[in-house]
Amino acid sequence: MYIYQRKNWTAFKWNNDTLLPLLANVRHLQGRLLGQMESLGFKFQEEALLSTLTLDVLKSNEIEGEVLNKDQVRSSIARRLGLAVSGLVDIPRNVDGVVEMMLDATQHYMKPLTTERVFGWHAALFPTGYSGMYKIEAGKYRSGDMQVVSGAMGKERVHYEAPKADVLEVEMKRFLNWFNNESETDPVLKAAVAHLWFVTIHPFDDGNGRIARTITDMQLARSDGSPQRFYSMSNQILTERKRYYNLLEQTQRGDGDITAWLEWFLRCLENTLVNSRVILESVLAKAKFWERHSQMSLNDRQRLMLNKLLDDFEGKLTSSKWAKIARCSQDTAIRDIQDLINKGILRKEAEGGRSTNYELQI
């Protein structure tokens, strides 16, 4: 028996004695992080916001096995938020749709969550009406049965079978009414309950996990009282993905006591908030670098490559890599690099070898 087959299945129960110490620590970490960010300048906050939202979009999709292009996601967020950043690239419709959904949820977190809004998010996720090679019902509730299955063909394992299509409208109306009006539950716990509740209904052909995490982010923004996102729970969920799916399956087959799910959610959020400091330190180092070199005359190729070096550049930087990524000739790449060496921004690596490698001079 699945949880939704029980009478009054949304009358969830949990053990406050188990959860309250965890919840108190999470709320403390939330407040401390927001306080630290408010003490920084506006430019640093912008850079942190852009990096966090980019990470959140990338990781939420990666949980579902879909890898998006980081530069495209970053460019889409920057354009939609009106942020002045260099190295913007062209953005395909599907990436723009994912970003549009996330920003609508977090930047307008106090607006009611309506059927039309959720349908809009789903349509934005699947602008062509296809999920991969398969035609889906985009922008409306599914009309067929839904199972969550894993394993090779012929050896499938059914993890979950969602409610029938004929009850979706009623179930979602009840969920949306609760989400928009219930105020007695702590906002962080409400985020955890909302995630479980929505993904249990599983109202769409595809994209249910991403929309559930978007609703979670929206409710966490309400708990922070701010549209500024400085931590990415999707990044931590990806790290804990196996436990995430196991707890969902266990809870969806349970008796309505969701203490174990809420405990995992709070610990995951706690880890998110602790780890966000590492991410934000990198963001601040990058912002300080650009502040230090703000008066330096640099071309777009140089800004693009320096940003890549400040983020997570893979391997060693060579002139051939520069030429390939910046889409320029080898001679142009060498001139760009030499100019940065003369300005004290880059230097040759001491190791040497068959090809010359370059690194930031910080």
Describe this structure in words.
The protein is mainly alpha-helical. It folds into two domains: 286 residues, Fic-like fold (Orthogonal Bundle), CATH 1.10.3290.10; 62 residues, Winged helix-like DNA-binding domain superfamily/Winged helix DNA-binding domain (Arc Repressor Mutant, subunit A). The chain is built from 14 helices and six strands. A two-stranded antiparallel ribbon has the order 1-2. The longest helix has 34 residues. It is globular and about 75 Å long.
What is the C-alpha radius of gyration, as a whole number of Å?
23 Å
Give helix % range: 55-70%
Order of strands in the sheet with the most strands? 1-2
Number of strands: 6
Distance between the termini: 60 Å
Structural class: mainly alpha
Low-confidence stretches: none
The CATH level-2 architecture of the largest domain is identified as Orthogonal Bundle
Sheet with the most strands?
Answer: 2 strands, antiparallel
The name CATH uses for the topology of the largest domain is Fic-like fold
Shape: globular
* CATH C-level of the largest domain: Mainly Alpha
The CATH superfamily label of the largest domain reads: Fido-like domain
